[in-house]
Amino acid sequence: MQKMIKTRSGREIILPTAEEDAAINAAALSDPDAQPLSDAELARLRPARGRPVVAVKRPMLSMRVDPDVLAHLRASGKGWQTRVNALLRQAVEQGKI
Length: 97
Hints:
The protein is mainly α. It is 42% helix and 6% strand. It is built from 4 helices and 2 strands, in the order ββαααα. It has helices at residues 18-29, 39-44, 67-75, 80-93; strands spanning 4-6, 12-14. Strands 1-2 form a two-stranded antiparallel sheet. A hairpin with a 5-residue loop joins strand 1 (4-6) and strand 2 (12-14). It starts with a strand and ends with a helix. The mean pLDDT is 91.
């Protein structure tokens, strides 16, 4: 007889039998690219949250610009702030500002 569990939403899920579970595990273990992690590997895992840590954290900047300039920058698409930073860096390196 198969076991059945009911979720909070009321959905019923049929659990595999012991034989089905053994067959599923054997199939998974036969895949060389999908081997289970060791206890040491599991202990080293950490959830990845937020942005990656960078060596030099850039400070936040708040400045006022003309509305048409901001509209043009934003219209250039995703990553416009990074492109503005690159333009400012280029101007600084060329001695223009």
